[in-house]
Amino acid sequence: MRMNPRTRWLLRLNAVLFTAATLVALAALGWMSQRFVLTWDWSGQHRAGLSEQSVRLLEGLETPPRLTAFVTPGGELADQVERLARRYRGHRPDLVLETVDPRREPDRVRRAGVDHEGELLVELGERRERAAAPTEAHVSRALERLLRERERRVAWLTDHGQRDLQGQANHDLGRLGEALAQEGHHLQGLSLLRQPLIPENTDLLVLAGPQVDLLEGERRLLRRHVAGGGNLLWLLEPEDLHRLPGLAADLGVTVLGHPVRDPRTQELLGTGDPGLSLVDEHPAHPVMEAISGPVLLPYTAALAIAPAADDRWRVRPLLRGAEHHELDAAAEPPFLLGATLERPRPHGGEQRVAIIGGGDFLSNRFLGNAANRSLGLALADWLTDPGEPETDFTAPGLDQRLDMGPVAVTLFGFGFLIGLPALLALVGGLMWWRGQR
Fold first, then answer.
1. Which UniProt keywords apply (predicted)?
2. Of the residues 126, 146, 166, the one at which a domain ends
3. Whether residues 253 and 308 fall in one domain
């Protein structure tokens, strides 16, 4: 082609138009990627979708699942929730998703017992569970618990001035009882004076600070309940060791001192009361998985728990104080403020006991502080769970692990660290030598 000024001008125009068209096409693709999402999953294990366990779980649902996400609109967590919902809708198009802005609807957040952004309520009909984070593992486990769920019976002792799960006084547990009832727990006050029997269908017995001594027959019934595999939540007060010495001996519980003092929290809250302790570092425990914030523990006792080895109890710390906490006793911080005991039942399942050094943190007065409400609900859920193993919804892919023998490791190490650099140096030297010639 003969080049002249007109040809050169046309070539330049063509280059400009091609560049402009390319930029417009890229801008259009970028805009479309923000408005529309298309996913092609070519992986062998369908990693862009749901695991096989989650798919089977969704296929077994008789009612449409509903997710309520507490996230700020337009934020990263909101996008994560939308992506997760799309994955579930690929198998359950009838899934309902609702997002709640915590800043605009704080009352709804309080009623739901949500203590951090990104938490979800998972509902099937009238039943609901909480998922701590918008991930497949958390949501599918919540759905699995709902499918397994039956009516869970929670009983508490009456007649001795204990904290009442339906009481309205500051020291009572009425607000916690309302929250448990909303989550499907059946609450029942239990008078061992009128009915000297703890029903066998009791999933959880709550012992919350009796103010007067129990009769010898009542003490025997409590010890028989634990010895027979019954679950127990003991909100232990220091006087309980004198009122229930047999039960304390069975579980190996002693009180090191009371109350634990927290000077930093006293200064932070400006209350002038050193008996209020903030605990913001939580041990690894299933109960604490959904607890992301601090827990306010008022007037809590430091405990030591050492049951007899023959009883086969597995003791795990649940609440542990900080290094700066103080106690009028010859014990060194951090102090044990709460723990759980677990052991297998003879006929399957697991017996669970939780012992906390005080019940004020769940009282009507303090339940709304920090993550206390979430901890109370998580404790009740865990203690009433039958102990069946949960499905693993996060099994790693077959190609995420590389296993090599020692010979292969040696060859790879020698090849990459010595052989490959030597080869590159040799090729470079030969090219330089030929260039010189």
1. Membrane, Transmembrane, Transmembrane helix
2. 146
3. yes
